[in-house]
Amino acid sequence: MSSAAGSSVTFKSDSPFKRPSSTPRAVAPPSSSSHNPAQAPTLIPTSWLAPYEQRRLFFAIFGLIEVIKIWDIIAPYLTSNIEPTWSSAFRVRGWWTAGGWTVSEVLIFAAVSLLRIPMLSPSPKQLVQLSGLILLWNTVCWFVAEPGSFFTSIHLIGPAALGGEWYWSWWYSLRRWREPPHLEGRHMIRLRPFSTATLNPLSLSYCIPPDSTQPLYVPIVFNNSVPDEISYYSRSLSDGTHSTKTVAGSSLKRSSSHRPHLRIANSPAGSPVEDDEDPVVDPLSAVVLRAKANNEIAKLPSVKPADSLTLIPPDLLSTQSVLYLPVDKPSIIHLKHAIDKLGDRFHITPQKEAVIVECPSADETDQSGRLIKIGKSKTPSPEQRCVGEDEIIYFNARGAGTLKANWRKRSGEGQMISGTIEGIQDDSIASDEMSLIPRERITKTHSVPIRVVHDRPGQFAVSLTSITDSLHNNYVPGPASERIFNVLPRPMAKFDCKQSRELLVGQTTTLPLLLAGIGEQPSDLLYTFHPVDGSPEEKSIKVARRGEVIVVSQPGSYVLQSISGPCKGDIMEPSSCRVQLIPPPAVELSMTTLHECAMDVGVTVGFEFTGSAPFMVEYTEKRQNGKSINKSARFNGHTGEIVLQPDQEGQYTYTFNHLTDAKYKQVKLDKPPIEQTVHPLANVELLGPKKRKLFACSGNEVELEFEAKGADPLHLTYLESWAGKSRNTTIHIPARRQKIMVTLPPELSAERGGSGRYSVSLLSITDGNGCSRKLSVPTVDVDIDRQKPTARFANIDDVIMTEGESHRAALRLTGMAPWSILYDTDGGSPQRVSVHDPNGFLNLARKGRYRLLEVRDENCQGDISQTASSFNIDFKPRPSFSFQPSANVILDGQIWRHPGTCAGEEEDVPLLFSGQAPFELAYRYTSEGKTSRHSLKSAPSRASLQLSSEPGHHRYDFLEAKDLNYPSTRLSLVLEHDVYGRPSASFTKPNSRPMCLDGLLQGDAKIRLLGKAPFTLELGVRRPASSRLETFTLPLTSNEWTMDLPLTVKDAGRHEIHILSVSDASGCEQDVKDSDVRSTTMDVVESARIVPVTQVQDLCAGDTLDFLLQGKAPWTVEYEWLGKKHKVTSSSSQFSRYAEEPGTFIVKSVALKDNQCKREISDLKRRVHPLPSVKVQEGVAHLREGDDPASFSVTFEGTPPFSFTYTRSEMVGSRSKIVETQTVSDIMKFSYTISSTSPGDYEVVSVTDKYCRYPRVTRDGS
Asked: Is the pLDDT of residue 21 over 50?
């Protein structure tokens, strides 16, 4: 042991390892004559570390190394299961390691001396002394660590592995020190680790984007070896073709050398970390770990190419490696076999596959199903639609299995409507190749219908927001996949014409329009002109803004017919406007001379106007030989008068030049001059309204109420004016308050439907004295509108609506509000409603044929349009479903039944929906007394109901159906089916009892059978060192069976019994669980035998009787010695009896434990012969589990037959331990071949020929 480890070393006074004196000494000044050079400073600056700190650092490091060395030496004596560490490779185990440690430690001290650390810099002489001590210390360590190796190396004892009594062995070995070797050779069998290959260890799914050029890599975990070649099955998911591919191991992709981005690390807290680099935290890594912990790996989305090289299993062992298989097409991968460079096959982990599907994607189709190509970044142009339209647009969604699509409709103002369409699948019949592939793995393109209602104007974008396939892969389409609609409002037009429009002769007038829904593009407005005399004419104009007008130059009726532009519009009421020609004004003059005191003092000029009040008359007054004076008079009525009373005497001439009314300006008059006149006056006061209105039902007379004053009898003259015509009428009236009826002209009569303006003006009144007076009272104006009210439906197309909703049937009414409408349904009792809007609605909720019966406005009864008086309303059909003809169900009374299936088998029932997609079917599922409610959603009319695959009786009560039109429709339909459990078999008790050779294969192993009895059990028996299985088929009626096979065992060794298959009365395939124990073993031992070491009665070396016991220990031997019978038990295969005196040694019988396999023995005697020798073939054989046994030869020297005993040793920790002993006898040849698959070191420990045995069994056991 080195001084650092605790040995005391005394240094001389000249040693540099000097202790500082406890008492200070005076330091002598340096002398120039001194021959002692000054001590060199330390190599490590003392400013960094003080000398004592440098010494402590050295002793700490060197002491830590020695402690680690000592622990590696004594650890195997303290525990048997030592995990190897980095220092285990440097453990002292032989002369070379002891020498290596000595050299290393001496070099450490030599290197430290160069640092010139005070008290730690030995001189060369002291370094030699330290080397001797270090050599002695490492020799002691060697002796403690490996005593067997120590004594073997110094030729004191034989082989190692002495066990706990190693310190006694050298005494025994002294006795055979000079004997020639009789047992030589050692053959080693090394069992290579069991090589496995596991495809897709995390059981994840994968997907390749349709436009991806990057391959996808599927991980394969290889254990204990590296593949040189792999072969795998590939089934294409596009056409179902099956192929086998072989790739070289060098073509497999390896993970990057740096830390993987998505490495899954789940080491427990406190585990050692290889490096000090911070682990990468990745969300996907955490998701996979959490899903694995919750057994939800199947719910994870598929791995894409970019991430396929970054996922590494979390529980990867040091003997395992991950290689990645490149795949560039959607397919299903199964490993067929894998071979390493030595030609050994890997064990393929069963039921492992890699499913590579195509990632979901989306394209757009138009309404006809034509595919619309969408660019990478180009935004699609808007499509034009009209308000009120609805349509179904289609998107192509591509993905594996049943898809779910989320969609949204977004307006320019940010308002959004979203929805989900589930159950998108294709129910077409697959080809024979594709039928072998589960539906959820097949990628197909589906048409996703979305019903879009354009209910208001603006710009809207409809798009798929996500597509999810059956493997939980989600695809989010880009903005280029939107369909943008520019919804235009429907134009509407009507006249802003509350009364007739007036047209002047030679001029034009405008008909104002009220327009709505006019977009950027102009619309075409079609109208019909009905002249007063002539045929109707159709005309059209372009309208582009709300305040448009129609310029007309002819009188008549103008009726709006239609308006159309980008969208078809509606004509609202009022849709007609009448234009009335206003004639130029005219005037009739009358003159009355004014008399006062029998003299003419002036003249009164009376005017009777035709035209539109007010009127203005321009005239000139000229006195004889005087100048003309221009004057004017204004009149608000159709009659008037002016009194011309000049201030001066003379002859006056009054010339009337121009007439102006409300419509015309300065119409030239051609009237003769008038003179002054005078006339006594009477008076009339007009009563009642001055504005009147007549309708189609108002009659042909106008009532005038007035009060007349004057001397009876009175004569009243009035003027009627209409359509440029007039007439005077004089009637006799009394002087009192009264009413008269004025008859309208024939052209304005109700019978002829005449309409227009009519006025009555009171002109003059004459009393009984003959005096006449012009009247200036207001004119009575009558507006005559003979148009009868009408009613019609704006749209008579049949309406199909959802039951429970109401339909607003638009009306088109003419006349004066309000209107009273009478209608009936299917000829039933009439109903009356009141409408205040000419474009009003009827709210209708029942189905049937609706018919308008009559209409009445505020004044008159009207007419019903015969062409638009009725229409039909019908309800949309309610959703329902039925089983498709291909469904394997039959009707049993009121219940549909499906034939039974086996547990785990996927089975679905095809359904056929009727109604408006998408559909949703709600049903109640009952099994094993538990009830739950579910729903099935489907976009197409054909769908599939996935039946449960769990064993038991299952019932499906279909409760209600939903579609786009109806949120709920009650159903009453029941489907039942049974699922049979799969049979299984497992060893519940392994065999624990050996059996004898040549007996029937019977044991205490038990097999438990699950399923429906009776069972058929198929077992396979593998003999020792054989790869062939011998099968047995057993019919069983119970659920438990104890091993009893009709097989006579002819070979000794370990027999393997495997459960191959099991079937029951249900006919379902077996179910093999991971927890099932599918095999057991049975040790078949030789029948108990005793073999003499020699076949002569003479003793070998004259001291012992030696026998070999064959079979499995312990043995019971019965023998007779010196006339006495003995019975002994031996646990050793060597049975010896010291021949202390002459006699007869007779073996009677030998048996195994509990008197099993008992064998009766005849006379058995021993003879003397030279000791035999045996030599085992040297070498090392490498095997893998499942390989054929390794064989090596054993050669003999002596006289046949030979018998020998060999041992198999294994390393337990750092020590060798014998784990098996076997004896082989009756070898007539000089060589023997041993076949074995058990790993270890094989050595012969004894040999026997015809006469003798070596080593001899002496009395002291040596």
From this structure: no
Give a yes or no: residue 506 inside a domain. Answer: yes
Is the predicted pLDDT of residue 715 greater than 70, yes or no? yes
Cis peptide preceding 918, ω within 30 of 0? yes
Structure tokens at 510: 């405008």
Please tell me the predicted confidence (pLDDT) of residue 807.
92
Strand-pairing partners, residue 832, are: 822
Same domain, 741 and 814: no
Distance separating alpha carbons of residues 17 and 31, to the nearest angstrom: 24
* pLDDT value of residue 1095: 67
Q: Does 864 or 67 have the greater pLDDT score?
A: 864
pLDDT band at 629 (very low <50, low <70, confident <90, very high): confident
Whether 468 and 384 share a structural domain? yes
Q: Give alpha helix (H) positions in 1044-1091.
A: none
Would you say residue 639 lies in a domain? yes
Percent of the chain with pLDDT strictly greater than 70: 83
What is residue 81's DSSP assignment? -
Contact (Cβ atoms closer than 8 angstroms) between residue 195 and residue 347: yes
Q: Please state the φ and ψ torsions of residue 95, each to the nearest 5 degrees.
A: -65, -30
Q: Is residue 463 part of a domain?
A: yes
Cα distances (angstroms) measured from residue 498 to each of 4, 501, 547, 619, 758? 124, 9, 16, 38, 18
Q: Which of 796, 786, 811 is nearest to 821 (CA)?
A: 811
How far from 398 is each of 422, 461, 719, CA to CA, in Å? 14, 21, 88
Q: So what's the pLDDT on residue 681? A: 54
Percent of the chain with pLDDT over 90: 18
CA dist., res. 796 & res. 752, Å (int): 32
Assess whether 664 and 763 both reside in one domain.
no
Domain that holds residue 83: 51-151
Q: Would you place residue 376 in the very low, low, confident or very high pLDDT band (cuts 50, 70, 90)?
A: very low
- For 1197, phi then psi, to 5°, come to -130, 125
Q: How does pLDDT run across 166-177, given as a tens digit for each residue?
A: 333 343 344 344
Q: Which two tokens stand for residue 868?
A: 């638009």
3-state secondary structure of 664: coil
At 210, phi and psi to the nearest 5?
A: -60, -30
Confidence of residue 288 (pLDDT cuts 50, 70, 90): low
Phi-psi region of 287 (alpha: psi -120 to 50; beta: other; left: phi over 0): alpha
In this prediction, residue 1176 carries a pLDDT of 92
Q: Say whether both 353 and 328 belong to one domain.
A: yes
Please state the domain count of the chain: 9
The answer to whether residues 853 and 709 belong to one domain is no
Classify residue 1174 as exposed, middle or buried by CB count within 10 Å of its CB (0-12, 13-18, 19+). Answer: buried
pLDDT surpasses 90 at 1206 = yes
Question: Cα dihedral angle (662, 668, 672, 674), rounded to 10 degrees?
Answer: 40
Distance between CA atoms of 147 and 160, rounded to whole angstroms?
8
| C-alpha separations of 887 from 896, 909, 1193 in Å | 11, 6, 69
- Check which CATH number belongs to the domain holding 392 and give it: 2.60.40.2030
Q: What is the 3-state secondary structure of 841-870?
A: EEEECCCEEEEEEEEECCCCECEECCCCCE
Listing DSSP states for 877-904 in one string gives PPPEEEE-TTS--EEETTEEEEEEEETT
Task: Give backbone dihedrals phi and psi of 718, rounded to 5 degrees, phi first.
Answer: -130, 160
Query: Rounded CA gap, 647 and 682, in Å?
Result: 26
Which two three-digit tokens encode residue 52?
A: 């004592």
Which is it for strands 416-424 and 1231-1236: parallel, antiparallel or unpaired? unpaired
In a domain, 332, yes or no: yes
805 contacts 845 by C-beta, under 8 angstroms: yes
891: tokens are 């009707």
The pTM score is: 0.51
Mean pLDDT for 560-587 is: 89
- How far apart are alpha carbons 933 and 661 in whole angstroms? 87
Sort strands 652-660 and 615-623 into parallel, antiparallel or unpaired. antiparallel
